[in-house]
């Protein structure tokens, strides 16, 4: 058995808002409707979690202006996803909901309190995706002149996590007395300041709210670089991973097992979810045709422009891909953003042109093409070979793709007995770690 998650890659932002199947997203993306439909469908299908991305900037690296960003709505506009979580939880009963918080955007106290509040409101189904933010424009919205370099960002994230974890433990397990006669609500000797003093954060504590059903909300981590892996090995319950083949999946799993053991944890304490993009169709041929059409559209100038914009984003706003000749070589700078993603893009790119790169295949993990039955078989086989814990699916978000995955693919996986057929526990972590 393996787990399924859905990566909501553009957070509480605009989902496809033009073209076929966009529905009314252009004007209704600010409302919860599509996200509620998504989450209830995922629960019906037996997903473990919905994973909500977030970023806080209007990028203007590409071409030195926000024109391309706002022409297509690329990662902006985007609403704050935290207030969306209780609305999704109110419509569901079991599925876990992980929301993104950046260690440069949220002071630890605010993050710890906000996440515990969500844990109460979701009755133990809240998770936090801890990220370090990617571009200078984000950092500049939070009081910094520019973003920290990669190593320092992760040092700060480690400290942030230590501080947040200490706050989550600042109320002892038996601090609540709940004696209405005396009266005595809590035992003050079991609610203690944390007196945290680090290089980046200084917090007295204790947290001013009581622990939620999970005490420690589920922690997710998405960076795949060495410091990203370390952060996950020390702190995370689940990690999002990029791999293109079962062999790469296996290698990452082994690497993480060693790191977990070094940090005194067990390999089964961390579930690794591999990104995967499904291209479904009624038949294998239909799926292949859709996949081919999808690739053919990459030659469209609008598509090339969006891909180049995205590469600029992934570089951390360091490389302006608009400056380079489309028919010339690919600039080989990794930048300071999503370094694992940037390296994956640049791999083997010395011999091709920038146009080839812009028109080429995506880089969001494994791609699966086929009917529901065929794809279920491919996914089961890949998991079997790699020994991973699950897939984090990253389809585009339209009501059509939601149906295809939740009412086509997931039932086919269930028939094979490779995904859950219900939820045996109450909380997100218990379900996530139950097998
Ligand atoms: C699948 C995936 C999802 C991510 N989600 C977010 C996000 O929601 N917000 C964000 O600022 N960064 C996000 N990131 C960035 C990472 O959390 C990390 O900070 C960055 O990729 C640095 O990665 P590295 O360790 O590979 O260099 C994501 C990265 C990946 C691969």
UniProtKB/TrEMBL annotation:
Family, as annotated: Belongs to the NtaA/SnaA/DszA monooxygenase family.
Keyword Flavoprotein: yes
Keyword annotations: Flavoprotein, FMN, Monooxygenase, Oxidoreductase
Protein name: FMN-dependent oxidoreductase, nitrilotriacetate monooxygenase family
InterPro entries with a match to the protein in the record: Diverse_substr_monoxygenases (IPR051260), Luciferase-like_dom (IPR011251), Luciferase-like_sf (IPR036661), NTA_MOA (IPR016215)
Residue sites binding FMN per the record: 54, 100, 150, 154, 225
Organism: Pseudonocardia oroxyli
Pfam families named in the record: Bac_luciferase (PF00296)
Entry's Gene Ontology molecular function annotations: monooxygenase activity; oxidoreductase activity, acting on paired donors, with incorporation or reduction of molecular oxygen
NCBIfam families: FMN_nitrolo (TIGR03860)
UniProt-listed Gene3D superfamilies: Luciferase-like domain
Domain Luciferase-like: from-to ranges: 36-389
SUPFAM superfamilies with a match to the protein in the record: Bacterial luciferase-like
